Amino acid sequence: MNPFSLALGEDQLAVRDWLHGFAADVMRPAAAEWDEREETPWPIIQEAAKIGIYSMDFYAQQFFDPSGVGIPVAMEELFWGDAGIGLSIVGTTLAAVALLANGTDEQIGTWAPQMFGTPEDVKVAAFCSSEPDAGSDVSALRTKAVYDQAKDEWVLNGTKTWATNGGIAAVHVIVATVDPELGARGQASFVVPPGTPGLSQGQKFKKHGIRASHTAEVVLDAVRVPGSCLLGGKEKLDERLARAREGVRKSGRNAAMATFEASRPAVGAQAIGIARAAYEVALDYARTRVQFGRPIIDNQGVAFTLADMRTRIDAARLLVWRASWMAANQQPFTAAEGSMSKLYAGETAKWVTAQAMQILGGNGFTREYPVERMHRDSAIYTIFEGTSEIQRLVIARAISGLPIR
Ligand SMILES: Cc1cc2nc3c(=O)[nH]c(=O)nc-3n(C[C@H](O)[C@H](O)[C@H](O)COP(=O)(O)OP(=O)(O)OC[C@H]3O[C@@H](n4cnc5c(N)ncnc54)[C@H](O)[C@@H]3O)c2cc1C
């Protein structure tokens, strides 16, 4: 009989508790301040780097946990601490995943360390796919990459938007089209090394939530990068383009989609961290707030809401862990299980945080209590890394085999 267990092992529990300590002692107390400042919390990223939470090694170790749950467990704890600071700490991993998914071993060895910097001199990285006219429709990217054979360089031109860490990153990973006629199959990812002329930050967005995380436009004006900055190398790209031109469909994957597929359950786990945090505040409050001579939790109306909150959080976690286990064990997502996990976790976070505000009454509506921030933070989880509608589209296509629009 195959053993089945959802219990975390000793090592996993130790990592979880260690991250929880950092989230509780360092992130949570700083959350309101950085939310108000709307700035990248560099001192906290540095503190995370000093103890090993912000490093390629740490995320690689979690990523290669054979159970698959190393990353979701880590994400949940950090985002339980605070989502804005959490995204500032893990935003780099989106670019790192793009590098791991598409780069050669040599490229990974060169660029991964530069994405994180060192504890003394921390750096962040940015993954830039979205454009003003290409959000959900990744195939509509206009940023162009043209090969200059004489110099063995690529020349990038275009405007990226909504880039987490865009413009403040040391390393930017840019998804660009090499052959616009091929749509998503004509795209490739490029590393833009630190200090490359022509790359600049456009407007920085003022946001509803996750305000400690920097989100900005990235303008690419005749940015020249060496041929070696094309992730995966030119030979592989030429082969892929030739297959696409002949109409041969080896797989439907493209550079941006490969990154999103790998990161969806992890993003779902972030949403669960926010939901769990708001649920805990609401449970505590409901036990101690007295109205009509009894704690408000004595009313079924409140207690049942808490029961539903907890049930949905646990259900979301199970979906995330399943998808993560499947990915780690080379089980194909035949029913778009990665999208399912992100869809359900994102919607759960938004719903649970809204219920938490309601349970806290007037206090829930003020910045004296953290649940209004958690509610604002949760809203991004039905938007980025594929909106809820796009997740439903992916699931509907997977289960029906039809080109649902
Ligand atoms: C804070 C933040 C950080 C981000 N970080 C990054 C990043 O680091 N890198 C990056 O590349 N991008 C990033 N993004 C971009 C994000 O992934 C996009 O905003 C998202 O994919 C949606 O694209 P859009 O905003 O253009 O919305 P649109 O695609 O214009 O969608 C608008 C609405 O239409 C719906 N819709 C669109 N098409 C369909 C359809 N076929 N069927 C049904 N409904 C549909 C959508 O669900 C949505 O409700 C970030 C965004 C934000 C806000």
Characterization of the model:
- The protein contains 14 helices and 9 strands.
- It has 405 residues and is α+β, with helices and mostly antiparallel strands.
- It folds into 3 domains: 10-116, Acyl-CoA dehydrogenase/oxidase, N-terminal domain (Butyryl-Coa Dehydrogenase, subunit A, domain 1); 125-245, Butyryl-CoA Dehydrogenase, subunit A, domain 2; 255-400, Butyryl-CoA Dehydrogenase, subunit A, domain 3 (Up-down Bundle), CATH 1.20.140.10.
- The strands form 3 sheets. A 4-stranded antiparallel β-sheet has the order 2-3-7-6, with no helix packed on it. A 3-stranded mixed β-sheet has the order 1-4-5.
- It is globular, with a radius of gyration of 22 Å.
- The model has no long low-confidence stretch (mean pLDDT 95).
- Flavin-adenine dinucleotide is lined by residues 94, 127-130, 135-136, 162-164, 207, 210, 215, 380, 383-387, 389-390, 393.
